[in-house]
UniProtKB/TrEMBL annotation:
<keyword id="KW-0813">Transport</keyword>
<feature type="domain" description="ABC transporter">
    <location>
        <begin position="3"/>
        <end position="238"/>
    </location>
</feature>
<keyword id="KW-0547">Nucleotide-binding</keyword>
<keyword id="KW-0067">ATP-binding</keyword>
<dbReference type="GO" id="GO:0015418">
    <property type="term" value="F:ABC-type quaternary ammonium compound transporting activity"/>
</dbReference>
<dbReference type="InterPro" id="IPR003439">
    <property type="entry name" value="ABC_transporter-like_ATP-bd"/>
</dbReference>
<dbReference type="InterPro" id="IPR027417">
    <property type="entry name" value="P-loop_NTPase"/>
</dbReference>
<protein>
    <recommendedName>
        <fullName>ABC-type quaternary amine transporter</fullName>
        <ecNumber>7.6.2.9</ecNumber>
    </recommendedName>
</protein>
<dbReference type="GO" id="GO:0016887">
    <property type="term" value="F:ATP hydrolysis activity"/>
</dbReference>
<dbReference type="GO" id="GO:0005524">
    <property type="term" value="F:ATP binding"/>
</dbReference>
<dbReference type="Pfam" id="PF00005">
    <property type="entry name" value="ABC_tran"/>
</dbReference>
<dbReference type="InterPro" id="IPR051921">
    <property type="entry name" value="ABC_osmolyte_uptake_ATP-bind"/>
</dbReference>
<dbReference type="InterPro" id="IPR003593">
    <property type="entry name" value="AAA+_ATPase"/>
</dbReference>
<dbReference type="InterPro" id="IPR017871">
    <property type="entry name" value="ABC_transporter-like_CS"/>
</dbReference>
Length: 277
């Protein structure tokens, strides 16, 4: 399922203009990353897809249907949503957190638990964690549960709002790898919000670099953005105009090839294949 933002704007009741005239097409079964610093309107845009926020003007379409004519509750249940800090219900066991939407959609408790256990397995969590409560898990494990919950109803669309923002860098890499691995099999349409350039380069088939007020500075593949930043703002944001790059590091990209960065982690480019492979 593809998503299209068509000239959307959002002015909140207190007069804050969060998004102005934003347009973007998100192709089906790919991962699009909204990349930008705090307050530029990323969450507002993400929430327009499942009608947690309605645009002041313009429209959001899913497979050419305007979401404004969809029932908001049904819409929310049909779209996966993963947020920062997992947002798990503290008084429910892990397996029941995963099965929440299935229960809301009418599954029996045992059906929801069975599927919940399958999903835990899918996101790389041991079955022994199923009966714990969220506070008995690490931050990284909680995020995995959040991803499992987002996937529970097998949605075509997955919205991810800084899902790995609150975990340490190594766990974050693990979670990114796991998501790349899952996406290879599941082929969801993912809209992913982050302010982390490396995360965007790793996960995005398409990246929209955002400026304040929900304006796009550039939309393109990771390679286009690194190799041909549209302007100084993008170049500064992705750090490609800074010097001192001597040692290189490379990390694999989901869709093949490698992200290459300097010793300080600043991205330098995308390679199809590394010498010696
Ligand atoms: N309910 C609200 N009422 C008024 N203003 C809001 C509301 N929600 C968000 N805003 C404002 O809209 C702007 C965009 O916020 P938004 O949360 O979409 O940005 P963001 O890019 O996701 O930021 P962050 O990365 O910090 O989450 C900000 O100025 C924010 O203060």
């Amino acid at each position: 399922m593809g998503i299209e933002f068509r000239n959307v704007s959002k002015i909140y009741d207190d007069g804050t203009e969060a998004v102005r005239d934003f347009s973007l097409t998100i192709p089906s079964r790919t991962c699009t990353v909204l990349l930008g610093s705090s307050g530029c309107g990323k969450t507002t845009l993400l929430r327009m897809v499942n009608r947690m926020v309605d645009p002041t003007s313009g429209s959001v379409l899913i497979d050419d249907d305007d979401v404004s004519s969809a029932n908001p509750v049904n819409l929310r249940r049909s779209i996966g949503y993963v947020m920062q800090n997992a947002g798990l219900l503290p008084h429910r066991r892990v397996v029941d957190n995963v099965g929440t939407v299935l229960r809301l959609n009418g599954a029996s408790k045992s059906e929801a638990r069975e599927r919940g256990r399958e999903l835990l397995d899918m996101v790389g969590l041991d079955q022994s964690l199923a009966d714990r409560y969220p506070e008995q898990l690490s931050g990284g494990q909680q995020q995995r549960v959040g991803v499992a919950r987002g996937l529970a109803a097998d949605p075509n669309i997955l919205l991810m709002d800084e899902p790995f923002g609150a975990v340490d860098p190594l766990v974050r890499l693990d979670l990114q790898r796991e998501l790349m691995h899952l996406q290879k099999d599941l082929q969801k349409t993912i809209l992913f919000v982050t302010h982390d350039i490396d995360e965007a380069l790793t996960l995005g088939d398409q990246i929209a670099v955002m400026q304040s007020g929900g304006k796009t500075a550039q939309v393109g593949s990771p390679q286009e953005i690194i190799e041909n930043p549209a302007d100084d703002f993008v170049a500064r944001f992705v750090g490609v105009d800074e010097g001192g790059r001597r040692e290189l590091a490379a990390s694999p990209r989901r869709s093949g090839g490698w992200n290459v960065s300097d010793a300080a982690g600043r991205p330098l480019g995308v390679l199809g294949q590394l010498a010696g492979e």
